[in-house]
Structure to design on (217 residues):
């Protein structure tokens, strides 16, 4: 797999790996998971309830992937199939988990990458603040923003994964970033209009890209 981009299409090299995984090859399963686990983490962050542990959900998706890969009919649809597994896991966690208000995050020591030094703590606090605001975005905007910010995926790659046109991806990402900049992550246009009419210009928050890149384990 050397020299193959992490986000190239699944043909032909990816389809060969998928076919081998379907046949029970553990090395192929491992290679596919290592290639795709980080964008799967971005999908989970976009859809999971805030109280659910990301690593637990990643493990659940991995187990389902390994146990059900032989049921995949079309090797070229592997990434769409894997995203569906991740969506199902995130939504099931929301149905089965305890209630926490929308956008509320667990304590910082439950965030990925926690360390004991002050610099790492400050990084986690910034990340926690950014994830708190991203969690309040409309659902349609969260996933493309996280895939771009955390994984650097191009518009056509996100479009293929979400089955929407590339211009729609660009529009959703631009609107999500504007909502974060303007302090209305829930999409409240009227509140923003009132602030503008009063001459209020909200302070620019930290860059979403720089903060969110640290969110995936």
């Amino acid at each position: 797999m050397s020299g193959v981009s992490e986000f190239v299409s699944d043909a032909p090299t990816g389809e060969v790996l998928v076919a081998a995984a379907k046949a029970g090859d553990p090395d192929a399963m491992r290679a596919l998971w290592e290639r795709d686990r980080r964008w799967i983490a971005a999908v989970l962050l976009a859809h999971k309830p805030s109280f659910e542990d990301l690593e637990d959900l990643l493990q659940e998706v991995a187990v389902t992937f390994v146990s059900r890969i032989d049921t995949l009919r079309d090797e070229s649809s592997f990434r769409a199939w894997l995203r569906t597994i991740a969506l199902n896991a995130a939504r099931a966690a929301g149905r089965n988990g305890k209630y926490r208000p929308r956008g509320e995050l667990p304590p910082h020591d439950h965030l990925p990458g926690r360390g004991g030094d002050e610099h790492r703590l400050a990084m986690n606090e910034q990340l926690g603040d950014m994830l708190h605001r991203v969690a309040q975005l409309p659902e349609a905007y969260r996933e493309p923003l996280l895939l771009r910010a955390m994984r650097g995926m191009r518009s056509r790659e996100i479009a293929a994964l979400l089955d929407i046109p590339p211009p729609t991806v660009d529009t959703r990402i631009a609107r999500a970033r504007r909502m974060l900049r303007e302090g209305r992550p829930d999409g409240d246009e009227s509140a923003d209009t009132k602030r503008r009419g009063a001459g209020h210009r909200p302070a620019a928050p930290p860059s979403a890209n720089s903060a969110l890149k640290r969110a995936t384990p």
Summary: Residues 26-47 form the longest helix (22 residues). The CA atoms of residues 14 and 76 lie 8 Å apart. Confidence is low (pLDDT under 50) at residues 1-12, 98-116, 189-206.
